[in-house]
Every structure is written in C-alpha cells, then in structure tokens.
Amino acid sequence: MAQRLPEVDVVVIGVGMVGSIVAKELAASGYRVVGLERGEARFTVPEFQSPAIHDELRFSVRKALMQDNTREPVTFRNRGAETALPIRRWESFLPGTGLGGSMVHWNGQTYRFQANDFELATRTRERYGKDFLDPDLTIQDWGVSYAELEPHYDRFEYLLGTSGKAGNIKGKIQPGGDPLESPRSRDYPTPPMKEHFQGAMFRKAAASLGHHPFPQPSSNLSRPYTNPEGVKLNSCVFCGFCERYACEHYAKAAPQTIILPVLLASPNFELRTGCQVQRVNLDSSKTKATGVTYFDAAGREFEQPASLVIVAAFALNNVRMLLLSGIGKPYDPASGSGVVGRNYAYQTVSSVASFFGEDVIINPFMASGASGTLINDFAGDNFDHSALGFIGGAYIGAVNTNGRPIQYHPVPPGTPAWGKGWKEAVLRHYNHTVMLVLHGSSVSQRQNYLDLDPTYRDAWGQPLLRMTFDFPENDLKMARYVTAKGVEIGKAMGAKQVVGSPRKAPYTTQQYQTTHNTGGAVMGDDPSSSVVNRYLQCWDVPNVFVIGASAYPQNATWNPTGTLGALTYWAIDAMKRKYLKAPGPLVSA
Amino acid sequence: MSRPALCRRVRGAAFLVLGWTAAALAANSAGEGKARPRTANAAPCEACHGAHGEGSPAGGIPRLAGQSADYIEKQLRDFENGTRESPVMRNFAKGLSDSERAQLASYYASLTAPPAAGAATADARQLGRGQQLAFEGDESERVQACDNCHGPYGIGLPHSAPYLAGQSAAYLANALRSWREGTRKNDGGKQMSTVVDRLSDADIAAASAYFASVDTESN
Question: Tens digit of pLDDT per residue, chain B (219 long)?
Fold first, then answer.
C-alpha cells in the first residue's frame, strides 16, 4: 500500500538536463517542486574525478553511467512481424541514469536545427511537390517555428557557455562560422575550441571543394565562463574522455556544472534519488493528473500528489511513462490511429575512413567531445533534392572525439579480425587515420514506433518499452548520397585509401550509433497526430507536460540536445506566462 | 646524453644579476660522477637549483631533476616572453636559443636527485586537507583534484603537467599565488588561474605542504 505524501505544486520525473532546468525555474518562481530521480546523486567532486573516471573498461565497455538494463531494458525488433527481445547490453544507443541524466555523459555537441526543419512537411511539399515522398513517411510540422525558439536557443547556449563561431547574426553572414545556419541573435558565449590537426586537414580539403567548413559548436568550453545563473565552468583540457564519461574538470556543460548548484540551494526544491516512478496517477475523468506513484530504493511505495507533473525522463522513458499511465491513445501501426509511440525516429550515421601514410601524424587522442570541423553543405535541405528521391541530409565532419585504446582502432577492410595481422594493422593505422562522421537526419515512418512489450517486464513488474525500428529507404538513399560526398573530401585530404561506409539496413542494436532517440510523444497542432501541443503540454491531460526529444516529429540532421534545451525554455516560458496563472489547456483542441 | 650548450651571454647575465660566487662554479666542476653528464654550461642554473637539480626547499627554489622536458622548455620560453614573470629567470632565459632551451630541458629531465633536505613542516590536519585537494578536490569550492592533471600523487603527466610530488612547498605556494596575482599566465586554457581563484590561502598552504611531503621514492 502506497504511503501518501503531502501534496506539492510540481513533481518532476527525472532530474537530468530538462528536469533540473524546469525545476530550477519553477522553484525560483515560488512553487514547491519535488524532483524524483531513479539513479543516484553524483557530483563532479568526488564521483567524476581522475583517474577513476578515465576507466575505459568500466565506462565505455561496461557502460557504468547508463540505465541499468539488468533491471530496466528496452525490447527491440526490426519489424512488427518479429518478436522483440530485451537489449541486455546497450550498444547502439546509451540512455543514461542518475542525477544529471544523459547530459553527464554527452559529448557537448550543441547545434541548432534550421528554420525549415520545424516546417518540414510544408516545406517539402512546397519545394518538391506533394507526391515526392513515400506515402509511408509520416513527417509533419512541429507547431513551433525557429523564430519562436530562437530566444530560447540563445538562453540555453548561454546557460551552457557553448563555444563556437556564429555564421549568421540577424541575417548578416559572419566569416568563419556556418553561413548556412538560420539567423541567431548574437554570437556564441565563448569562442570556438582549438582546431585539432584532422580538423584543419578537413577544413582545407572541404574549402578546396567549394564547401563551407566551420568549427563544431562545443559545450566543453574553450575558456572559463560564468553563466547567467552565476555558475562557473572551466575550460576543457582535451583529455578525450567526454562521451560515456563524466567531466572531472567542470569543463563540460552538464546539470552539475550549469544549474544544479542553484537548484539544490533553493528552499523550494527537494531532490529524491533512488526513486523509480511507476506511473502518473489520473483522476476518474482521466483528464487530470493527481500526482505520481513511485518506489524508493528500499522498495517502499509512495504516492506523491502534485498539481503539475513534468515528465522529463529521456525520450524513450517519457513515452513509456505515458503508456504506463494511460495518458493519450497508444499508436496502432495497422490503422495508423493513436499517437503515443508514433513517429519514433533516430539518426542515420554513416562514416568515411581515410587512411594516410605514416608521415601524417593525426594524434586522435588530442580531442574533446566537440572540437572538430564540419560542413553543412549536404545537411537538411541545404541542397536540391529534386532529382535525388529523398529528403534530409547529413553534416560531414572530422569530428572524432577520442583515441581511446580499447575501442579506437581503425583498420582498412580486409584486415584480419584478430591475431598478428590485426595487431600490425592497428599499429600501422592508429595514428594515421581520419574517421569522418556523416551525421544524418531520420524521417518518421508508419512502421517505426514504440509501445509496451507484451511479454517482458522490468524489476518492478511493469511492461518494458518495445521498440520497432528499421531504417526507412529514404534515409538509406540519403546515407549513400552523403557518403559519396564524404569520400570526395577524404580523397581531397590526401588519404591513400578512402573507405565510405553508408549506413545500411537492417538497424542493429549491437553496434554503437548514437543516443539520439526521438519521437513517440510528438508535438504538433493537431491532437490526432501529436501527443503534446506546441507548448509540450499533453492534449489529454493538461497538467502534464512531456519534455524531451520525444517531442520531435522526426529527427533533423543535427544532434538533438540544443533543440531540446530551446524547447525546454520555450515550454517553461509558456508555463510561467500562461499556464501557472490559469491552469488549463494552452491550446484548444 | 649530450651536453647542453648554454651561451656565454646568458652566463654573463647570471653573473651580473646574482653576483655569482666561486663556490657555485666550483660545485659545478667538481663532483661529477659517471652517471651524470658534464654540466659546465648549466652552471648558472646549478647555483640556485642545485648540482643535481634538487632545488632548495627552504629558499623556494624548485626542484628540476626529472621534470618534464616539455614543461621546462615551455617555462624557459615563457620567462622570456613574460607570460611567467620572474626578473631573475627572465635574465637567464632571454638569451637562450631554441636548441639551448631544448638541451637544458632534456638535461634536467634526465637527472635524478635524492629528496632535498629541509622540507617544510606541516601538521596532520593541513596535510589531510592537502591530500583531499590533491586526490579529490572540493565540490563546495568547485575545485577539481590536482591529480586529474598532475598525475596520481602529483607525479606529473608529461608533457604539459609538471610533477608536484617532492617539490618545494615554498615554491609551490609562491607559484599558486602567482597564478592568482596574474604574474603567471602561461596556461593556455587558464586551468591554473581558474583553480587558484577558488583556493584560500590556507588551501594553498595545505596543497603545497602535502605535495612537498610526498615521498617520490616510494611512489
């Protein structure tokens, strides 16, 4: 029997990036906020310190910072006719857990989407005609525009201290930045990271082909920075342990380094760790949330009543929380009806390996999670797709993040997989190879979705999330096209051998790709094709906001975190200006 | 090991500035064992930093023996260009050619020397606080562990992070204060000045005393 706790104003499920930002804003506005985090509390000191944090076996191979998939995995299948099985070891995507969430182990790559990404369906129809796309694709507009989000992108970047070079300030093109970006109101808060050698090689080669290289925006900072919350960050030392690791230097933007010191000092906020939320509770009308039910680390069950519930538990967990709570109609791929779980999308990542002579010394370990150089010439809708038969694109860059010894050992095709031949090839190529990343968009399509698994349950007895996903043909075509462009750049860099590897189907969970899981609780203007309205408020239960990349109707070319930060502040703004003054639907259905 | 060739101009400067003593020269030419290369041209250095690069803890003169060559070379450059202010060292450093700097640096990197006598005394509480800063840092001050960059027990992480273990406490404390005061600003990412801004005088003393106390032989 659950113990009922005193009611609070707001309960936040998940104290990661979104949860800590929302909680801080609402606590500062005078509301009593409880943050429920399933993982443990952890801070830069002592948990993230060296040498323990640089343990590649523990963090990269055994994935110590990730969601515990012995207790709470995700089941996976490529298509509806198959039986999904639990992912017992994370490989393709790495959902985090613990205070600070996945932002603790991210790379700090902090992009904006472009204006037309937010109106993808409309713009595609306008530019390429209504019959251009495969009818199975379910892309749609976001219900919010880039211009509306711009101030919130700006606020988020200044919270993080992002290091970069603007390419377009209020319509004026800036030398050195990305000339293809949508206009921003001002430059980045800190200058770009130092360019590593492979970045410089890439920049020269890309420019020689007429492309527009620019420095990767990085939230591992190029210099010390004090953010508007008064929290100080240090500059990055290029240790090459960002992704899958926490930063020991206070140099990577994460809740611990940007906002938790302020949030945890607030008398209006209470953090509870080790709390596994089971569901959002609804009243008998099913249109109002009354709070949440959770188990603490000792296995005791609690009911936490609240007037407002923020679901901020990472894209996949957000969708599962809605399904477990009976909020919104689950998506049915057969009929195409229902919304929760619909439009799950991902990221289509390809690569180009460029193998150089032994006279070219790359030093791949001299890097950070975001210190590369890239181009957007083949990203999004920056090129004409009329004759290509697909939409979307990829950024192409020398954006390698590390040269860690266990997992970084590029070798050419044909190399033996083990033994003397493999070892010799690793020695020969480790320091003489550039791996270009082609980070591609992902369209939503009818057959890709999330629902509850009918068989497998978590350690608390709740059904697991089931993922049904394979790469849409649109994205495979895109991958082939951009990979050919990447190969051209590799050759222009002077490599002796250039090997393009366009992403291929079937999607596998056995190979790392990216943790950019999106969709499933998408935003929009129409309740029949979205779970939340343009302010990320549930259509069906207006005192529940679902904030995450779960809101993306499809995924754009770029890493999703910058856009999620913008959406978070956008939703908070709507809560503070409208919802909290007069609770109720912010958009009439 | 080749012999570092320090130019005469610098040696002259040394005499002018410090009023070099005959004893210093004598110490240089005498007592050279087989294990140690001849160092006649490092004489200006040896007068203060000791015949074996052991430094002078009481005088706040840093130990150089076994220090990272890249680090020493960079410091010599920075004394000259002024990003590390030291009138004495500037005079020594300003006349050096690139190859002289490199030779001096690799020479001192190659030396071994016993721990210098006269390490500062510190009480257990101070050493405990120093060890905490070294190993772990302090979340309330938002200071990360010194050892993150300077290696376990402060043994140094070449190329850029010097060892601190067994270093003169007075030198370390002076160096930390110089970051704070801005007379030393030769770290590209402002790593040191950022950290030191958050350290109290007591923390500077504690960290310096702790690292001075680390027994480099057993670590």
Answer: 333 433 333 333 333 333 333 333 333 333 333 344 434 377 789 999 999 999 998 899 999 999 999 999 999 999 999 999 999 999 999 989 999 999 999 999 999 988 876 555 788 999 999 999 999 999 999 999 999 999 999 999 988 899 999 999 999 999 999 999 999 999 988 999 999 999 999 999 999 999 999 987 654
User: What pLDDT, on a 0 to 100 scale, did the predictor assign at position B7?
Assistant: 33
Gap between the Cα atoms of A98 and A256, Å rounded: 11
Instruction: Report the residue from B139, B143, B190 with minimal CB separation from A224.
Output: B190
DSSP A586: S
CA atoms of A184 and B34, how far apart (whole Å) = 67
- The helices-and-strands tally (H runs, E runs) of chain A is 11, 22
The stretches of A352-444 forming alpha helices (DSSP H) are: 419-429
Residue A109 pairs in a beta bridge with A218
Alpha-carbon Rg of chain B, whole angstroms?
17
Q: Which residues pair with A499 in a beta bridge?
A: A353
Contact A44 B148 (CB under 8 A): no
Closest residue of B to A46, CA-based? B136
Q: May I ask the CATH class of domain B8-110? A: mainly alpha
Neighbours of B38 (CB within 10 A): 12
Q: What is the pLDDT of residues A418-432, one digit of tens each?
A: 999 999 999 999 999
Q: What is the pTM of this model?
A: 0.93
Whether residue B147 and residue A43 make contact (CB cut-off 8 A), yes or no, is no
Which positions in chain B have a beta carbon within 8 angstroms of at least one beta carbon in chain A?
135-139, 142-145, 147-149, 152, 189-191, 194-195
Q: Which residue of A has its CA nearest to B151?
A: A51
Q: Which residues of A touch B136 (CB under 8 A)?
A: 45-46, 49
Q: DSSP states of A248-301 as a string? A: TTS-B-SHHHHTHHHHHT-TTEEEEES-EEEEEEE-TTSSSEEEEEEE-TTS-E
CA distance linking residue A348 with residue A479, whole number of Å: 7
Domains in chain A: ranges and CATH: 3-579 (3.50.50.60)
Residue A516: active-site member? yes
| CB distance A440 to A555 below 8 Å | no
Q: Which residues of chain A have pLDDT under 50?
A: none
Evaluate whether A316 touches A341 at the Cβ level (below 8 Å). Answer: no
- Residues of chain A in contact with residue B143, where contact means CB-CB under 8 angstroms, are 45
Same fold, B8-110 and B124-213: yes
Q: What's the CATH fold of domain B124-213?
A: Cytochrome Bc1 Complex; Chain D, domain 2 (1.10.760)
Task: Please state, as a whole number, how many other Cβ atoms lie within 10 Å of the Cβ of residue B19.
Answer: 7
Q: Tokens 């926490």 map to which residue?
A: A246
pLDDT digits (tens, 9 = 90+) for A188-203: 999 999 999 999 999 9
Structure tokens at A318: 């957000």
Q: A302, A274, A308, A414: which is closest to A355 by C-alpha?
A: A414
Strand-by-strand arrangement of the A85-86 sheet: A85-86, A74-77, A463-468, A449-457
The yes/no answer to whether this complex scores an ipTM above 0.90 is no
Domain parsing of chain B, residue ranges: 8-110, 124-213
User: In percent, how much of chain B has pLDDT > 70?
Assistant: 78
In total, chain B counts a number of residues equal to 219
Q: Look at residue B12 in the predicted model and tell me its pLDDT.
A: 34
DSSP A54: G
List Cβ neighbours of A265 (8 Å cut-off, separation of 6 or more).
none
Max Cα-Cα span within chain B = 52
A303 bridge partner residues:
A4, A293
User: Which residue of chain B is at minimal alpha-carbon distance from A50?
Assistant: B148
Q: How far apart are CA A236 and CA A217, in angstroms?
A: 13
